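#lab-general

N.A. 3:47 PM
ok so I finally got the sequence cleaned up, no stray characters, all 90 residues accounted for. can someone with queue access submit it? mine expired

B.Y. 3:52 PM
send it over

N.A. 3:53 PM
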Amino acid sequence: MNNFQSVFAGHLSAYIKVRRVLGFRSEETAYFLEAFDGWIFERNHTGPLTQDLALEFACSHSKTSTNYCARRYQCFMFRLSSPNWHERPH
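B.Y. 4:20 PM
back already:
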């Protein structure tokens, strides 16, 4: 079970749940989203998810490869196209 804490907690939990119900293996995605949630929570971010924010997180570890950064960023591609994603789910 995920213990998301950031402003995006509800959305992240719901997304992981939907992926699992649909039969997707979500271990790597859940790992990246948990890391993102912790990163956002530590920074007390309360605004929307933006491409700049996702890229900053994806590239936040200087010792990782470009491929690893790209995989981290891909976890957010699904949400950057939704303009109201930062709002709390109903």
